[in-house]
Design a protein that fits this description.
Strand content: 25-35%
Mean pLDDT: 95
Number of helices: 4
Order of helices and strands: HEEEEEHEHEEHE
């Protein structure tokens, strides 16, 4: 497998792009596959500070295989499917998805402080494909901020 094939396979597995970067470091923090000084390295990098490499090899295919295995077995890939002002709307979406056998979890956040919460509904892994088929464009919202 090469980097292009790896990218396609990660997309097929619904790996969240916010967790990884191929070919370069991501400043916000991500697992990276980079080719430097004749070596392929898998490492976590955040704000241009690298952790010790998780894997190093001169072989692109070995590095891609390691990266794929790591990203699909060690990292939880969550996907936002709903973003609401109304708790009732968030709960209704979770129920609609549950009726289709899609598990959800919610993460509530203060928007303009604790008095103005937003209710976020997430699915994990390949359930994002089922949610997209059922709901269309994601995330579903009851407002536009």
């Amino acid at each position: 497998m090469n980097v292009q094939e790896l990218e396609k396979r990660l997309e097929e597995e619904a790996c969240s792009r916010s967790h990884y970067s191929l070919g370069k470091r991501y400043p916000g923090g991500a697992y990276c596959l980079v080719h430097e000084d004749g070596k392929w390295r898998v490492l976590y990098s955040e704000r241009n500070l690298d952790d010790e490499p998780l894997f190093e090899s001169e072989s692109e295919s070995e590095a891609c295989a390691f990266f794929f295995e790591y990203m699909t077995t060690r990292i939880l890939h969550t996907h936002l499917v709903g973003y609401f002002i109304s708790l009732n709307n968030a709960e209704a979406l979770a129920e609609k998805l549950a009726q289709q056998g899609i598990s959800t979890h919610r993460n509530d956040v203060p928007y303009h402080g604790w008095h103005d919460p937003r209710f976020r509904v997430f699915v994990t892994g390949k359930d994002i494909f089922k949610a997209q088929e059922l709901l269309g464009e994601l995330p579903v919202r009851d407002h536009r901020d």
